[in-house]
Write a structure and sequence with these properties.
about 425 residues, mainly alpha, three-stranded antiparallel beta sheet, 19 helices, globular, binds carboxymethyl coenzyme *A
């Protein structure tokens, strides 16, 4: 017999179904709760709320497990590349050889921007944050591809997917070139996805950037590790926007905006700024930890802690190894890495962090790799956005394909003033 939860309210008992996932994770299904009882649930920050049923990514935060479509992240990181991983996440399976060729071909075909879109970069001030530019430009793709606003067959979906994956890196690199006042560098079709991105970032009309294969691999790995992470803030935003049947481009642009915040994707930038600050001020590790633990200070140890991982972040382990390799290969001795290592070691032994299960997350090391590669700090979150694109696309598609899908519309508990008249509200403010 299937498990049920019993809820007792106002002297009445209600039976609630229990849903069980592939890995035996369980949820009490409250979808009929309000209709049957008049009550809603309250879950500030959604820490206990399953907002959807999804077959894309599985996370077990207690045991540090992350799987894309059932495959462990460490295995994917070792054996795959970003485009194959993207295909897996979006379509639920690996491509055949022909499908992979066709997908690569589409990505190359769509790597350029429409000239009118390219001209839009001139309208942004030089100091504009690249995340603002990225969100605006991805949203403006809705204007340039009206035939893809209604995705009613698979071929349109593939067309939209290839455009997004391809153009996001062109837009990202163009936004960087614009911010430093350099000419935009066009992609060249004989390079791999990630190599092409680094070329657009670092080549100039008078010098061709020849990236080290290990650097290309490290960047590709970064994209793989960020490719999806189930119902995080930006992905939930994409699903929320998509649930109103908003088009893929505009839904994903909303995801970029959500990612920008420093408690989410903006953490990688915040980590590096924190490490630089510690270095410049010559602060000791105990001083930094004391500040992070002080409840009167709003300082947090950036790159530490995670809503879901309460043991370790499996991505942080993989990226830490990659980080060591890249720094060794490039012969870079970064003092910030020394500070990061000392900080991590001290925090991992500190009672405050141990008690609260706060461990280094993916952002703790990703900033150091990107700094070694030469990615400017304000582009860090943009790198995260390029990596997260497959996850956003796959989650948007899941909302569209769900025949029972409803618009996302949470309820609230109102605690403002009780009913009063216009005069009653205005009287205290009359002279
Ligand atoms: N430094 C110091 N104290 C912390 C930290 C931290 N980084 N993170 C959590 N805490 C404390 C917090 O003050 C609270 O203490 P108390 O119980 O005494 O009030 C306790 O730990 C629980 O924290 P919370 O804010 O309730 O936890 P949350 O699940 O709401 O937040 C988080 C998760 C990731 C936003 C948070 O840990 C944080 O702000 N970390 C720093 C920012 C960061 O690295 N973000 C990247 C997340 S990974 C990439 C991504 O998903 O985008």
């Amino acid at each position: 017999m299937s498990e049920k939860a019993t809820l007792s309210l106002d002297g009445k008992e209600y039976e609630l179904p229990v849903i069980v996932g592939t890995e035996n994770e369980k949820a009490v299904d409250i979808s009929k709760l309000r209709a049957e009882t008049g009550y809603i649930t309250y879950d500030d920050g959604y820490g206990n709320t399953g907002s959807c049923i999804s077959s894309i990514t599985y996370i077990d935060g207690e045991n540090g497990i992350l799987r894309y479509r059932g495959i462990d992240i460490a295995e994917i990181a070792e054996k795959s590349d970003f485009i194959e991983t993207a295909y897996l996440i979006i379509y639920g399976r690996f491509p055949t050889r022909e499908e992979r060729q066709e997908f690569n071909h589409l990505i190359v075909e769509h790597e350029l921007l429409h000239e009118s879109m390219r001209n839009q970069f001139q309208g942004f001030p030089f100091h504009a944050h690249p995340m603002a530019v990225l969100s605006a430009m991805i949203n403006s793709m809705s204007c340039f591809h009206p035939q893809l606003l209604e995705i009613d067959d698979e071929s349109k979906f593939i067309q939209a997917t290839a455009r997004l994956l391809s153009k996001v890196r062109t837009i990202a690199a163009f936004s960087y070139k614009h911010s430093v006042g350099q000419p935009l560098i066009y992609p060249t079709s004989n390079r791999s996805y990630t190599e092409n991105f680094l070329h657009m970032m670092f080549s100039a009309p008078n010098t061709d950037y020849e990236p080290d294969p290990d650097v290309v691999r490290a960047m590709d790995l970064m994209f793989i590790l960020h490719a999806d992470h189930e119902q995080n803030c930006s992905t939930s935003t994409v699903r929320m926007v998509g649930s109103s049947k908003a088009n893929l481009f505009t839904s994903v642009a909303a995801g970029v905006s959500a990612l920008w915040g420093r408690l989410h994707g903006g953490a990688n930038q915040a980590v590096l700024e924190m490490l630089m600050g510690i270095h410049e001020r010559g602060e000791s590790i105990p001083q930094v930890l004391a500040k992070a633990k002080d409840k009167n200070s709003d300082f947090r140890l950036m790159g530490f802690g995670h809503r879901v991982y309460k043991n370790f972040d499996p991505r942080a382990r993989i990226i830490k190894d990659a980080c060591d390799k890249v720094l060794y290969k490039l012969g870079k001795k970064d003092p910030l890495l020394g500070i990061a290592k000392d900080l991590a070691e001290a925090a991992l032994e500190d009672e405050y962090f141990v008690e609260r299960k706060l461990y280094p997350n993916v952002d703790f090391y990703s900033g150091i790799i990107m700094r070694a590669i030469g990615i400017p700090i304000n582009m860090f979150t943009v790198m995260f956005a390029i990596g997260r694109m497959p996850g956003w696309i796959a989650n948007w598609k899941e909302t569209q394909d769900n025949p029972k899908g409803r618009i996302y519309r949470p309820r609230q508990i109102y605690n403002g003033p009780a009913k009063r008249s216009y005069e009653q509200a205005k009287t205290p403010f009359l002279d």
